[in-house]
Amino acid sequence: MFSDIGALEVVALVILAVLVFGPDKLPKVIKDVMQFVRKVREFSDSAKADIRSELGPEFKDFEFEDLNPKNFVRKQLLDNDELGLKEIRNGFDFKEEMSSVTDAVHGRDSGTGAASSGSSGTPDRLRKRDGLTPGEAPPFDSDAT
């Protein structure tokens, strides 16, 4: 419940409580707060038990945490892959298609990747292109840009 409160915050709360209630009344205040927390927990546990008994035996494994939308989606869709959602999700992986398009644009063989630039380490764009002389620029296509 209080897992995100650090030691410094706890010390600050204790000092604040001592200043507000005083050292003589602080034990009684802590006792009253603890009794209130216990009563709230008992009330919520009895309410949960009443709801479960009213729902019937069909909902014996019902958990109230499942009413949280994140937990519901995780339990219903991600844990049970009856619909093949992992296959659909993997079908939207465009890395291979994009790498083949990139290789085609750069004039590399698809599937060989960066190794097709030659053993000299010279990038493909600096090497001689087919049909171009060494000083000639490639043709400019204004519709392609």
From TrEMBL:
Belongs to the TatB family. The chain crosses the membrane at residues 6-22. The Tat system comprises two distinct complexes: a TatABC complex, containing multiple copies of TatA, TatB and TatC subunits, and a separate TatA complex, containing only TatA subunits. Substrates initially bind to the TatABC complex, which probably triggers association of the separate TatA complex to form the active translocon. Residues 111-122 have a biased composition (Low complexity). This is Sec-independent protein translocase protein TatB. It comes from the Bacteria. It is found in: Cell membrane; Membrane. Signal peptide: none annotated. Part of the twin-arginine translocation (Tat) system that transports large folded proteins containing a characteristic twin-arginine motif in their signal peptide across membranes. Together with TatC, TatB is part of a receptor directly interacting with Tat signal peptides. TatB may form an oligomeric binding site that transiently accommodates folded Tat precursor proteins before their translocation. The keyword RNA-binding does not apply. Its main location: membrane. Pfam families: TatA_B_E. Residues 103-145 are annotated as: Disordered. Keywords: Cell membrane, Membrane, Protein transport, Translocation, Transmembrane, Transmembrane helix, Transport. It is a single-pass membrane protein. One of its GO terms (cellular component) is TAT protein transport complex. GO terms for molecular function: protein transmembrane transporter activity. The gene is tatB. One of its GO terms (biological process) is protein transport by the Tat complex.
